[in-house]
Amino acid sequence: MKRNYDTRHCEPSKKAWQSHNVMRLLRRCFASPCNDTIMLFLSLFAFLCLALPACAHKPSDSYITLKRVNNNIQGQWDIAVRDLEYAIGIDKNNDGIITWRELRDNHKRIAEYALSHFKMKTSDGYCINHLTEQLVDNHSDGAYTILRFLIDCPGKDKIPKVFDLDYSLFFDIDPQHRGLLSIQHKGKTLTSIFSPDKQVQHFDLNKLTFLRQFFDFCAEGIWHIWIGFDHILFLLALLLPSVLIRKNNQWEPVNNFKSAFRSVFEVVTAFTLAHSVTLSLAVLGFIQLPSRLVESLIAASVILAAVNNIFPVLKDGRWIAAYCFGLIHGFGFASALMDIGLPKESLLVSLFSFNLGVEIGQMAIVLAFLPIAYKLRSSLIYQKVVLIGGSVAITILAFIWFVERAFNMSIWPS
Fold first, then answer.
1. Mean pLDDT of 123-142
2. What predicted TM-score, i.e. pTM, was given to this entire model?
3. Do the bridges between strand 72-80 and strand 178-185 make them parallel or antiparallel, or are there none, so unpaired?
4. Torsion sign across C-alpha atoms 233, 238, 242, 247
C-alpha cells in the first residue's frame, strides 16, 4: 500500500526524528515538493565541501609581466615547478622532490616548452622570444621558475602598441589552468586572464586608460575570491548559522528574513573591514608576514569557524570571528594581488578596484546562499545535514589544508 506523506513541509516532528533513521527522513523529505530545492542546495554544498580536496593549494596559475625597457619589450614569466613536473617531468629520480640541480639540468627544456606556448603577433607577423635569464623564486604556494626574456618583433615598430597574444601553456593537460597577464605601459597597467576559451586576445595600448585598469583589477578581485576555496568555505562556515538562532542549547529557525539578513550583514561587514585593512597595509609595504604562516592561519580560521557551528562558543558574535580572522585573510588577498604585479604609479586605483572586486565576488556568494538557506531553515535536513554535517566536512577539509600548509607536506595527491 502506497503511503501518503504530508508534503506541505519538509520538517518532521522531533519525535519522528528520534524514532526514524536518517535515511527514512531523507526519503520522506525528498518525496515532498521541496525536493528540487533541497537537492540543488545539497549538491552545490557537497561540491564545495567534499569535491575540492585537491584545492588545498591554490589552482594552477602562471604570471606574465610585459613592460618596455629601453627599446625592448621585456617579459618575465613565473611558472609553478609542480606544474612543469606534471607537464614535462623534471624529477629525474622520481623521489617526489625536485632539487635545484634537477631544475638547472632542465632549464633548456623548460624554456623551450614554455616560450613555445606564448606568442605575440603584430600586423607584420609573429615576434620571437629570446630567453635572457632563468631563476627560481617562491610564491605563496611553492617554488616557481622565473623566465626572463625579450620579445623581438618584425617590421619597423619594435615596440608595437597593437598586437595579439596567444597563450596555451598547460591547457592540453589542465583545463583549469590560467595565465595571469600584466602589461605595464606609461604608468598604467593592463591585466588579463588567459583560459582555454580565451587563449588568443587582442590588445591596443593606445586605449589603455585608468578606467580600463580599474575594471581589469576589479575582475581580478572577483576571480580571486571565486577560486579561493578556503576563503569561500570560511565565509560559508560563518553564514550557515545565519538563518538560525541558538536557544536552549539547540538551533532554531529565525522568525523572519530581517533577522537572517542582519546576521549576514554583520558577518560580511566585519570580514570586509578586516581584510581591507590588512590587504592595504600589506600591499603598501607596512606589514609583511611569511606566506606559509598566512596560508596556515587561513586554514586554521576555517577550522575554528566550522567547529563553532558544531560546538557553539560564539553564539551571537560570529561577526567578531569574521573580523579577527578577516585580518588574516587580508594577507592572503594581498599575496594574490602582489603576484599579479602592481603599478607604482596607480597603486591606490589598483588596490581599491581589486578590493571592490573581492567584495562583488563575495556578495555574489551571499546572494546565492541566503535565499535558499532561509527557505530551508526550518528543515531538519538543513539543521542536521547541512549545518552540522557540512561543518564537519569543512572542518576535515580545512584540517587537511592546515597540515599540508603548516608542515609543507602533501596528503591529497596534486
1. 89
2. 0.72
3. unpaired
4. positive
